[in-house]
Amino acid sequence: MRILAAMSGGVDSAVAAARAVDAGHDVVGVHLALSTAPGALRTGSRGCCSKEDAGDARRVADILGIPFYVWDFADRFKEDVIDEFVSAYAAGETPNPCLSCNEKIKFSALAERAIALGFDAVATGHYARLVDGELRRAVDQDKDQSYVLAVLTAQQLSRAMFPIGDTPKSEIRAEAARRGLSVAEKPDSHDICFIPTGDTRAFLGARIGVRPGMVVDASSGVALAEHDGVHGFTIGQRKGLGIEAPAADGRPRYVTGIDPATSTVTVGTAADLDVWSITADRAVWTSGSVPPTDFDCTVQVRAHGGLAPARARPIDDGARIQIDLSEPLTGVARGQAAVLYRLDPSDGDVVLGCGRIAAA
């Protein structure tokens, strides 16, 4: 097959491309330029899409003996990922930009161009597996990225390859070293790739501006502090609330509600964070078909952690999902994804579908 290997400049995508070559595919490497002003160097594990990353990807392609190109997707990335991220925070949500990037850039814009150019599939360095068309968790549970891939449709998955999902990360680094790839010990990227400073509040503040409001106690309705905008808060947050005095019972307070219309942030106790029911919209069913009835599953509401057994019910002809939890979850924020898994202890959990959390 003709395979387009998305090469970020990191070790995972490098080994993914190498394995595609080993499998006998006709492979072409491509690095996505996603920043309108890429820096010359990244700062350790922060940032991405730098000139250094493009250079690292090119050197790997040279070693593998495959053609290599840089495609400029910066405008599309800004519109579909960064601008959407900022708008969601301004609306009191807590989005995951990796979901948007996978949905709209890597497996939409990139895949569409690849197919138009005659490629059969796009290979990436994501830690996930495709088994008989089913999206499954990676072997390395600590690195599993099936959560951020759950937004992909059956058609998109049919054009995807995840060559490293069957291997632990430590072995991927060792393999890269054996292949003589200089990225073998390159640090993994952390935090949000387009915020290299790691200061999300400052990034959002510079784009949203000051929208003052109050931090209010959930039980008494008493105003406890002022803030500069709801974009500085997320459900479950404990630190940085601006509250000077402790609660009457001496227990910590957490963000339990965000109302962008009134710019009000509500805080309460840990017990106030318990969620037993979730409604999700923008549903995607991985198989391509809406389940005919309710079903048992495990739901995951954050990229790392936030799992609970549940019963899910498609509503509105499958466009939305009602999820009733068997045990409570905390820190459930609007804008995040609720990903549904079928447990398969013998061969990794299977992604059944997902939706954007609209209410909890």
UniProtKB/TrEMBL annotation:
It catalyses: S-sulfanyl-L-cysteinyl-[protein] + uridine(34) in tRNA + AH2 + ATP = 2-thiouridine(34) in tRNA + L-cysteinyl-[protein] + A + AMP + diphosphate + H(+). Its EC number is 2.8.1.13. ATP binds at residues 6-13, 32, 125. The active site is at residues 101, 193. The keyword Oxidoreductase does not apply. It comes from the Bacteria. The keyword Ribonucleoprotein does not apply. Residues 202-268 form the tRNA-specific 2-thiouridylase MnmA-like central domain. InterPro entries: MnmA-like, MnmA-like_C, MnmA-like_central, MnmA-like_central_sf, Rossmann-like_a/b/a_fold. Keywords: ATP-binding, Cytoplasm, Disulfide bond, Nucleotide-binding, RNA-binding, Transferase, tRNA processing, tRNA-binding. The record marks 126, 336 as: Interaction with tRNA. Pfam families: tRNA_Me_trans, tRNA_Me_trans_C, tRNA_Me_trans_M. It is found in: Cytoplasm. HAMAP family: tRNA_thiouridyl_MnmA (MF_00144). Catalyzes the 2-thiolation of uridine at the wobble position (U34) of tRNA, leading to the formation of s(2)U34. This is tRNA-specific 2-thiouridylase MnmA. It comes from Williamsia phyllosphaerae.
